[in-house]
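> call design_seq(struct)
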């Protein structure tokens, strides 16, 4: 089955509320709530949007800050996809950041994901896809998000 076919949240009329997500995520719902509660502390915001190409709701995580000149800036940090019993956090990095990320404190499993990630696009980037099934999976997500904020401002 194609990855896009596994996406949940394919009803455009059903906005992804907590009540809607809990029965889909089941055991991983606690991790989803933990991520949501951590966003303000991490200086991040998450918004759900309907994406026609995928025919699904996806969440976009962003970091907002004010530049030295007072301009409000934003950086897309991650995409969140919902599946049955888990969710994925996808963080895209520039190819030039790969070696720096590999020196971070992410787990060996995530380091293998980073090493194996295929470079795509005209501006060389690669995705790191973390399947979150429980709270323990969030440790690497937080490290990757911090790396993204620091490396690609």
């Amino acid at each position: 089955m194609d990855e896009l076919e596994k996406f949940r949240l394919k009803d455009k009329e059903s906005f992804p509320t907590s009540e809607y997500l809990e029965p889909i995520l089941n055991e991983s719902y606690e991790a989803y709530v933990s991520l949501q509660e951590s966003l303000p502390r991490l200086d991040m915001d998450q918004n759900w949007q309907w994406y026609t190409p995928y025919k699904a709701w996806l969440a976009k995580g962003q970091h907002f800050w004010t530049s030295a000149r007072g301009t409000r800036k934003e950086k897309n940090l991650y995409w969140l996809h919902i599946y049955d019993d888990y969710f994925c956090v996808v963080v895209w990095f520039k190819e030039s950041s790969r070696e720096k990320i590999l020196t971070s404190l992410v787990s060996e499993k995530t380091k293998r994901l980073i090493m194996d990630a295929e470079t795509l696009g005209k501006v060389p980037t690669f995705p790191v896809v973390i399947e979150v099934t429980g709270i323990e999976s969030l440790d690497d997500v937080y490290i990757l998000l911090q790396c993204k904020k620091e490396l690609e401002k």
